[in-house]
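Trying the structure run again after the queue cleared.
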Amino acid sequence: MRPFPNVSQQRRPVGQGAAPVFSADGSEIFLFDGGGLSAASVEYAPFRVSTPKQLFRGQYWYGVANPQGLLGRAWDVDPTGQRFLMITLPGAGEGADQPRSQVDVVLNWSEELRQRVPVR
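Done. Tokens:
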């Protein structure tokens, strides 16, 4: 990290991780570290970043690669910073032995909708 607008200052390493996200108030930065989520506090005057602390562990999917190999973030933090939206990898955690849910794909869904819900 570097403070803005003076980006000429030396970079401050936060920790190992991917897809960083700031809390809504900017006081924390969350990092997906490959095995779960970590958080570091951020102060701006003077500029300081704490050592990341592990929040929780688990097998989560954190993004998908595009043709250039760059990853897009596939998780998020709610505005309160108290909850996270994460995608659990298949076979991870409780219920791993449960059968997968069925996914139905409806082709021509707009036509199907017109047939089922007539226009008044």
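The chain is about 5% helix and 35% strand. Worth checking whether this holds up in the mutant runs.
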